[in-house]
Design brief:
Structural class of chain A: alpha+beta
Strand order of the largest sheet of chain A: 1-8-9-10-6-7-2
Distance between the termini of chain A: 23 Å
Structural class of chain B: alpha/beta
Radius of gyration of chain A: 20 Å
Oligomer: heterodimer
Largest sheet of chain B: 7 strands, antiparallel
Order of helices and strands of chain B: EEEEEHEEEHEHEHEHEEEHEEHEEE
Order of helices and strands of chain A: HEHEHEEEHEEHHHEHHEEHHHH
Number of strands of chain B: 19
Number of strands of chain A: 10
Radius of gyration of chain B: 22 Å
CATH topology of the largest domain in chain B: Rossmann fold
Largest sheet of chain A: 7 strands, antiparallel
Number of helices of chain B: 7
Helix content of chain A: 25-40%
């Protein structure tokens, strides 16, 4: 089951990113029903079916090398996408350990980790990296521990400190955000950070989510799915570069919509960290074009219905206002009105 | 049903520290290392006695960087639910116990500029691990440790050896008590105070700090004995036609599961709403411990979250 990497695909300029048929089948559709509203849709992050994106704690897929390359491009241009406040060093080591242990355990043909006391050796074969270092001694790594390891894993990573009955976002690597900024949010409390989300505050979603997370246990990570849409398979839809991608939303035509409009799904994982008692929040982005999505008849029907009836406040917040109708019109011929089967998976 | 999170350990050392306190070392039965933890963490020790199961929380007092075993200090409590007596009287070197992964509800504030730790008796245990974290850092700290008399000062030698002048031990028998007002009355901005000990000591420290104008976010406490989980009660599951006894140390959800009835759940923490269950009949009061139901729903007595909530009644009928 070794992964065949599409090392040269791009998430910018010529946008050569595509999903293989296998990647389409395992796409984590977030809609378990034909309509969508916010909920505290948190579930234990336990192993899912073989081959699914939740089979392992951290999913490594065919886009791994290309996503790591895209992260390097972002960081060269905008180094503040990685930040860590000084008191987060023990949490940085916690995250490095979590990622190295998960990836070496679940993908032994790709990654290996050997420990001799505090002397660790890490080998990343896809990226050609081998590093020997002393766990707990940041001077023995080429970069800070969180910076070092999150350049070798897909998805954004935000580390929260727990104090005063709250969670503070105080370290992170964020190069694939759905229009939010680590540089702006760093140091914020849980509710401040989620301030812009409409409707969910009124539904007490964040009050309940925070209470739940404050009690999150070691060895019992949880996950949830979130979603939005993005024009082109662009990972870095950051506020910092809004001037580059914001205008794409006005470019969608009935001819371009099938290949330009992408459903953007975030698989979000949350782990309690052992030494720091912090929490790490991973936000892994999966992209699928409308054409790819419509290759699964159930998904074409369901996404058509979800988008058609989506609450106007969510249409605005997710930035779909200018092209939602074009997407719905393109999907409409695929929706014969037949009922969809339970669950989110393909038939 | 045992928690997904439990680890089988073997008692590898037992040492009497005072006339009332024993130290137990718990090593992983499977060999290797136990999970890393932060100072201030506790574990739940599951003790399977002849007639009942005890689940007691104990602070980890071993240094967080030594993970071949965890150490806990157990004070013998004559009038209690019986877990400490079981540990003192029935647990031997080689005994096997189950423990949960560590949970920290008493962590050090990482932004503090100074830490003042106040311990009474067995309340010293969380500070033992925390001070190892503090010792490795650069932020000043001091421990004020109050015990009945010299024979009760568990860990005295170890504390003095590791932390020297940062430790002050007070003996009730010598009429030497902590001057809480003096201690908290004049501290630099950014100081945090932590107290663990008997209820009276916690009230005294917290009350004094508040009067002296300390911000609530800078006052931390932990009571070292967990409250009882609840009274036993009976529940009848109407759809399944099954009667279930819920013992004091088991949740309603666990008891339902143990009876072989498949009940919905997700977070098991009273937040997500997944296990919300309709109450068909109750002849007493529902004890709601969840964060999900609105206060109106709780008062109505028509719904319950079995993952965390209980009842004080002789008859409870659920729509399960």
């Amino acid at each position: 089951m070794s992964v065949v990497f599409k090392a040269n695909e791009t998430f910018r300029d010529d946008f050569t990113f595509r999903n293989s048929p296998k990647a389409i089948r395992r796409f984590p559709l977030p809609f378990v029903d034909d309509e969508y509203m916010y909920s505290v849709n948190i579930e234990p992050h336990t192993p899912g079916p073989k081959g699914s994106v939740t089979e392992f704690a951290i999913d490594v897929d065919e886009h791994y090398i290309a996503e790591c390359k895209d992260r390097e491009i972002v960081l060269l241009e905008d180094p503040l996408r990685y930040q860590a406040l000084p008191h987060m060093m023990s949490a940085q080591w916690d995250v490095l350990e979590l990622i190295m242990e998960s990836m070496s355990r679940d993908y032994p043909e790709l990654f290996s980790l050997t420990k001799t006391g505090n002397r660790w050796a890490w080998t990343n074969r896809p990226l050609g990296i081998h590093t020997e270092f002393t766990f707990g001694d940041a001077a023995t790594l080429p970069r800070e521990p969180l910076d070092y390891i999150t350049r070798q894993v897909q998805g954004d990573w935000v580390v929260m400190d727990q104090r005063e009955g709250d969670l503070f976002a105080e370290a992170g690597m964020v190069t694939t955000p759905a229009d939010w900024s680590l540089d702006f949010d760093i140091g914020m409390t849980f509710k401040e950070w989620h301030g812009p989300v409409p409707l969910a505050h009124e539904l007490s979603v964040f009050t309940r989510a925070l209470k739940f997370l404050l009690n999150l246990r070691l060895n019992e990570p949880v996950r949830r799915l979130n979603w939005t849409m993005t024009i082109h398979p662009r990972l870095d839809t950051s506020p910092e570069f809004y001037y580059r991608w914001g205008k794409d939303r006005a470019s969608v035509t009935p001819e371009s919509v099938a290949d330009d409009a992408h459903l953007r799904v975030e698989l979000q994982g949350l782990w309690r960290l052992p030494r720091s008692n912090g929490i790490v929040f991973s936000i892994r982005c999966y992209l699928i074009s409308m054409r790819e999505l419509a290759s699964v008849p159930k998904w074409a029907r369901r996404v058509h219905r979800v988008l058609k009836n989506l609450d106007p406040a969510l249409v605005d917040y997710k930035g779909l206002t200018r092209y939602r109708d074009t997407v719905v019109d393109w999907l409409a011929p695929f929706d014969d009105g037949a009922p969809t089967s339970p669950g989110a998976g393909p038939d | 049903m045992s928690h997904a999170n439990t680890i089988l350990v073997r008692v590898s050392a037992i040492e009497p520290l005072t006339p009332l306190i024993k130290r137990f070392a718990l090593s992983p039965a499977a060999g290797g290392f136990l999970p890393a933890f932060s100072g201030g963490s506790h574990i739940i020790v599951v003790m399977r006695g002849a007639t009942r199961v005890h689940r007691n929380p104990y602070s980890l007092l071993s240094p967080p960087n030594l993970l071949d075993s965890y150490q806990i200090g157990v004070r013998r409590m004559e009038v209690s639910r019986g877990g400490s007596m079981f540990m003192h009287d029935h647990v031997r070197i080689g005994s096997e116990l189950e423990i949960t992964h560590p949970v920290n509800l008493f962590n050090l504030d990482k932004l503090a500029r100074k830490h003042i730790l106040i311990a009474g008796g067995i309340g010293i245990t969380p500070f033992m691990a925390q001070m190892e974290d503090l010792r490795a850092g650069s932020v000043p700290y001091e421990l004020h440790y109050s015990v009945r008399g010299p024979e009760h000062s568990a860990f005295r030698d170890r504390l003095l050896e590791r932390h020297g002048a940062r430790i002050r031990i007070y003996h009730d028998s010598a009429n030497d008590f902590i001057d809480v007002e003096g201690l908290l009355g004049n501290q630099p901005l950014g100081t945090h105070v932590y107290v663990c000990g008997p209820a009276g000591m916690i009230e005294k420290v917290v009350g004094t700090a508040r009067i002296a104008g300390w911000s609530g976010s800078h006052i931390h406490w932990e009571q070292f004995s967990a409250p009882p989980v609840g009274d036993a009660f009976d529940v009848f599951l109407a759809k399944s036609g099954v009667s279930v006894r819920v013992p004091p140390d088991q949740s309603l959800l666990e008891a339902i599961e143990a009876a072989g009835v498949d009940a919905p759940y997700l977070c098991r923490g009273g937040v997500c709403g997944e296990c919300r269950t309709k109450v068909l009949e109750v002849d007493g009061v529902l004890v709601h411990n969840d964060h999900f139901l609105s206060s109106e729903e709780k008062e109505s007595g028509r719904a319950i979250m079995p993952c965390v909530s209980r009842a004080q009644c002789t008859k409870l009928v659920l729509d399960l």
